[in-house]
Design a protein that fits this description.
105 residues; mainly alpha
Length: 105
């Protein structure tokens, strides 16, 4: 089962993403994503301010997982192939003249 298939399956049973009306689903997923990014930013601020703490690394990883999942659900909802779009962005970045020396193929 692909990750996108798992996300679609999850969205079929998660009450917040069940709405037939796309607008409330988009609003929920966008706000959830923003909330998770805020939580990650707060943890990173503490890393920067207080120094590295191994137990915080676990929390950071969990927030990154939440962000990835909400972003993927949002992409599925709007019909975007997230992996494809991310690969296109990497290709574009690698082809910039100022990055040519970094990516030797």
């Amino acid at each position: 089962m692909t990750f996108t298939s798992r996300i679609r399956e999850h969205m079929q049973i998660c009450p917040d993403t069940l709405s037939e009306d796309v607008e409330p689903r988009l609003m929920f997923l966008t706000l959830a994503l923003a909330g998770e990014v805020g939580e990650l930013a707060n943890l990173m601020k503490k890393e920067w301010r207080d120094g590295h703490e191994p137990t915080r690394t676990v929390k950071i990883a969990e927030e990154m997982g939440d962000i990835y999942n909400y972003l993927h659900m949002l992409a599925v909802t709007v019909g975007v192939d997230l992996e494809h779009e991310a690969a296109l962005k990497l290709d574009h970045f690698e082809k910039r003249p100022e990055n040519a020396h970094r990516f030797v193929k």
